[in-house]
Amino acid sequence: MTKEEWQILHDRNPQYDGKLFCGLIAQKVVCQVSCPQRSRDIENVAVFSSLEDALAQGYRPCGHCRPEKPGWKGSRHELVEAARQYIEAHSTEKFSLAALSGALYINGSYLLRTFKEATGCTLLWYHNHIRCEKAKELLMRSDLSVSQAGEQTGFASSSHFSHVFKKMEGMTPSEFRSAYFRQLQS
Ligand SMILES: [Zn+2]
């Protein structure tokens, strides 16, 4: 370990999170550089340039700073956009907060709260909204039956499709389709 490296670990310099890792030799624990837990003595500290190196030497990730989950580094705005993009790309799958927050390396309840504050709607509402928008496209522009449109957009059953669609759009998928074609003919 160089003098510079020791200085970084000693100062818990957050700019080095993800670039260096701090091993505590006696405890066999590896931390992010900025982890506030546990004192750091120069004799008891090892520096790693990757988490894999530390794990290969038998260190376990610190339960407090979770070096295996590097954390969201962007702004709140970027976080909301990333959540939107993930939901749009995975709209046909069942909504899972655990999968979404895991993909973004962020705490689930923090993500829920941030999304709600920024957009005024919940993650689940947005997921249903995207599904219904895609279903509307199919109902208007394809020959698929109503239940096929529901299937293709990820709804588990026709009744689930009908229920969610009605809640979001104020009418059932069949009513929506009839209204659309009536309007085309008038
Ligand atoms: Zn730690």
How would you sum up this structure, described in words?
This protein has 3 domains: 11-61, DNA Methylphosphotriester Repair Domain (3-Layer(aba) Sandwich), CATH 3.40.10.10; 76-125, Homeodomain-like (Arc Repressor Mutant, subunit A, Orthogonal Bundle), CATH 1.10.10; 129-185, Homeodomain-like (Arc Repressor Mutant, subunit A, Orthogonal Bundle), CATH 1.10.10.60. It is 53% helix and 8% strand. The protein contains 9 helices and 4 strands; from the N terminus they run αβββαβααααααα. It has helices at 3-11, 51-56, 76-89, 97-103, 108-119, 123-141, 146-152, 158-169, 173-185; strands at residues 21-24, 29-32, 45-48, 60-61. The protein has a 4-stranded mixed sheet. The longest helix has 19 residues, at 123-141. The relative contact order is 0.08. Bound molecules: zinc ion (ZN). Residues 31, 35, 37, 62, 64-65 line the site of zinc ion (ZN).
List strands and helices in order, with pairings.
Blueprint: H1 3-11, E1 21-24, E2 29-32, E3 45-48, H2 51-56, E4 60-61, H3 76-89, H4 97-103, H5 108-119, H6 123-141, H7 146-152, H8 158-169, H9 173-185
Parallel strand pairs: 2-4
Antiparallel strand pairs: 1-2, 1-3
Residues 31, 35, 37, 62, 64-65 line the site of zinc ion.
Q: How many domain units?
A: 3
Q: Characterize the quaternary organization of these chains.
A: single chain
Order of helices and strands: HEEEHEHHHHHHH
The shape, in one word, is elongated
CATH top level of the largest domain is Mainly Alpha
The biggest sheet amounts to: 4 strands, mixed
CATH topology of the largest domain: Arc Repressor Mutant, subunit A
Distinct ligand kinds: zinc ion
